[in-house]
Inverse folding.
């Protein structure tokens, strides 16, 4: 099994204590792991599986079922494009394509090599009346245009 | 000077995105800076309110001086000083910034029950809710009514589930009430996953206590002591306000042990969804709360008999629950006076797409589609023509312009192959391709299919592949018949509601827009100019001024031309992104 660094082991032990006290489920363990480390790493899953009676397969079954779990590290800045119906008919695809071009991302790879940006798509954020919507680092932008989105990304690149 | 001044700033997700927080800060600091008499400052109450519907005109601000209300639209922080000087101090509202006729038209035909306090009260203050008779219904129920009385009122009101299926709420409660068990649960389904729908988000953001109160009353009626709210993690603001509201309600004794001195105890826990549309289905939702993959199971047994942890469980939608305090307070007859014979009360819709006034609306059941689109929605934007109204999202269907006189209620929509659903209503115009819209929904359902049953897992995949081919100009004549028969098979044989309704967008567009499918298949043409693979872009000589805007916008370097001379697009380099079309001010870029 992969070596777990000491610092990480300490955090994992804290999560395990919390989990035993709160009678959490496999989902809540995964949510905690993600909250703590930013994504679900194989090391964390294997460690938890060894220290609980939950098999690795169950953790991965859940982590791959729900869209909110990430199996890879994400970028420092998260750009989310809403793909709800209203956004779709008002040009969400164009927003996505221009963000992809600006960040040189492909369909398979949604995080930049320097781990500065991750581009995500979400089914619907429920802000349809101001479609198309993009979310940059948790701030919601309504009536987004390709131009505006590219400008915002460029501004973040300079930081 | 003795004025009573109240300032209400729309701060739902839409309001905040348009700059609501900055507007509020600006009001607060400008009032301080401006050396206004302490007396006036004291009497000036600035607070946030939830969504009042017309998000397209955010930030909306109400300024109420001595009960005289003026509503301003499109407010930005730099406009606040003038409003304070001229209106609050001077007494003259700033006419040019206040809402116009279309704002009033938007509201005129609406009837607000669920949304009556949304946009009016501060959602983060239990006192604001109590001030508008909040928790009176809880008091009334606990002190003067038996659980059976509550069930009778609900049955008499005719309220039906607002999540999509339309099952009578009173009947659901009665069945669960009749099941013997040491433990029962009530779950609020706030996993609003339909793309294009945001009613539940707005209700929770605007009036979370109404939902909590509905749960308390429901729990009392069925005999549950524990409740869960299963809410999407994609709604951070709604979660924040709900957590706050549960805390306030517990502190005030509306939740917890022996509520209001009665022997009824009830508590609520929050469970965050982890991003799976299928979890809106009752049995999948239960599996998810239990910590499993959210896969549905066969029914029966229904959750009212065997639900969460195998115990009797009632699952109600957010909007359904938010109706309940108002029904208890005003009576079943009052509620059933709205609506049609079989569809009582009002329904909240998320009116979006190509209408002028996009936003959240609440209308009596049975209102005509025409009233919604043209009176409330203000018609189609940009002088275009209406092509279709899609209702019910990925489970629903299309209504066409010749159905404008249809009554919007459960039965009438079902008759023409659509559904009320959870309340998404999207207007489409001549620029929307119906095959593309069907493909969009199938992409969604195919990705969200949990994979448990074969018809849904493989059926939606095959349907999507066919639609994909058609939109790329590779469709075959026999695809039309195959699409229809496979759609019917998936509907008939899938395990849960997701698969049973996933083909509806195809069947409905095939029925009403077959000509568009035929154009894609036979002529390899997309009449609306949407499907990329069937488009070519060119520049019209007679309109091109040689400004170079398209050349600068083109990400592929496909446009060339000298300044002030005709520009041209190289079709081999063109990636058909449409950037040139969007940027040209002279309409000289042509899609065909």
């Amino acid at each position: 099994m992969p070596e777990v660094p000491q610092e990480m082991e300490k955090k994992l032990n804290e999560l395990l204590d919390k989990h035993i006290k709160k009678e959490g489920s496999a989902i809540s363990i995964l949510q905690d792991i993600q909250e703590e480390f930013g994504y679900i790493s194989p090391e964390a899953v294997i460690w938890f599986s060894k220290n609980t009676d939950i098999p690795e397969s169950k953790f991965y079954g859940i982590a791959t079922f729900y869209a909110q779990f990430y199996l890879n590290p994400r970028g420092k800045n998260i750009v989310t494009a809403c793909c709800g119906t209203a956004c779709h008919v008002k040009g969400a695809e164009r927003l996505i394509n221009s963000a992809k071009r600006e960040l040189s991302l492909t369909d398979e790879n949604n995080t930049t090599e320097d781990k500065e940006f991750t581009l995500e798509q979400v089914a619907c954020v429920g802000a349809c009346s101001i479609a198309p919507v993009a979310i940059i680092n948790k701030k919601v932008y309504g009536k987004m245009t390709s131009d505006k989105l590219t400008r915002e990304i460029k501004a973040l690149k300079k930081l | 000077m003795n004025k009573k001044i109240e300032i209400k700033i729309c701060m739902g997700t839409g309001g905040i995105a348009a700059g609501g927080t900055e507007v509020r800060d600006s009001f607060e600091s400008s009032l301080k800076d401006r050396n206004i008499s302490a007396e006036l400052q004291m009497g000036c109450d600035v607070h946030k309110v939830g969504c009042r519907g017309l998000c397209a005109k955010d930030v909306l601000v109400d300024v109420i001086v001595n009960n005289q209300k003026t509503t301003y639209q499109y407010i930005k922080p730099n406009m606040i000083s003038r409003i304070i000087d001229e209106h609050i101090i001077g007494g003259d509202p700033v006419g040019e910034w206040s809402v116009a006729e279309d704002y009033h038209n938007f509201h005129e035909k609406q009837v607000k029950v669920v949304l009556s306090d949304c946009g009016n009260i501060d959602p983060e203050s239990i006192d604001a809710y109590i001030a508008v008779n909040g928790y009176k219904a809880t008091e009334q129920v606990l002190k003067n009514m038996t659980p059976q009385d509550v069930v009778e009122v609900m049955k008499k009101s005719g309220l039906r589930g607002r999540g999509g299926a339309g099952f009578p709420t009173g009947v659901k409660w009665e069945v669960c009430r009749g099941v013997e068990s040491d433990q029962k649960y009530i779950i609020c389904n706030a996993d609003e996953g339909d793309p294009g729908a945001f009613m539940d988000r707005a209700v929770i953001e605007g009036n979370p206590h109404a939902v909590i109160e509905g749960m308390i009353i429901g729990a009392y009626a069925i005999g549950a002591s524990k409740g869960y709210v299963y809410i999407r993690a994609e709604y951070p603001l709604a979660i924040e306000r709900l957590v706050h509201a549960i805390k306030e309600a517990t502190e005030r004794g509306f939740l917890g042990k022996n509520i209001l001195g009665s022997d009824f105890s009830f508590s609520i826990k929050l469970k965050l969804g982890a991003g799976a549309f299928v979890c809106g289905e009752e049995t999948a939702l239960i599996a998810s709360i239990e910590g499993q993959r959210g896969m549905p199971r066969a029914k029966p047994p229904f959750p009212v008999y065997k639900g969460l942890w195998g115990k009797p469980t009632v699952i109600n939608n957010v909007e359904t629950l938010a109706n309940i305090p108002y029904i208890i307070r005003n009576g079943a007859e009052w509620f059933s006076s709205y609506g049609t014979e079989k569809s009582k009360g009002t329904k909240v819709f998320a009116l979006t797409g190509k209408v002028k006034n996009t936003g959240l609306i609440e209308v009596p059941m049975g209102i005509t589609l025409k009233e919604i689109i043209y009176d409330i929605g203000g018609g189609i934007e940009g002088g275009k023509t209406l092509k279709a109204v899609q209702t019910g999202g990925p489970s629903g269907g299309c209504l066409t312009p010749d159905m404008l006189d249809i009554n919007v209620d459960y039965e009438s929509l079902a008759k023409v192959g659509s559904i009320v659903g959870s309340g998404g209503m999207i207007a489409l115009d001549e620029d929307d391709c119906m095959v593309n819209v069907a493909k969009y929904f199938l992409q969604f359902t195919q990705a969200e299919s949990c994979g448990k049953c074969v018809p849904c897992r493989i059926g939606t995949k095959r349907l999507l592949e066919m639609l994909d081919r058609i939109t790329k100009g590779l469709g075959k004549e026999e695809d039309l018949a195959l699409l229809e028969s496979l759609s019917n098979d998936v509907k008939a044989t899938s395990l849960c509601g997701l698969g049973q309704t996933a083909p509806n967008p195809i069947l409905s567009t095939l029925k009403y827009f077959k000509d568009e499918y035929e154009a894609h298949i036979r002529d390899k043409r997309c009449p609306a100019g949407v499907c990329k693979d069937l488009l070519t872009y060119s520049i019209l000589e007679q309109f091109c001024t040689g400004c170079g805007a398209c050349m600068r916008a083109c990400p592929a370097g496909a446009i060339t031309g000298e300044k002030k001379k005709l520009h041209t697009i190289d079709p081999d380099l063109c990636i058909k992104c449409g950037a040139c079309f969007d940027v040209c001010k002279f309409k000289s870029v042509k899609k065909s």
In short: Chain A has seven helices and four strands. The interface with chain B takes residues 24-28, 31, 61-62, 65-69, 83-86, 88-90, 94, 97-98, 101, 122-131, 133, 138-142, 146 of chain A (CB under 8 Å).
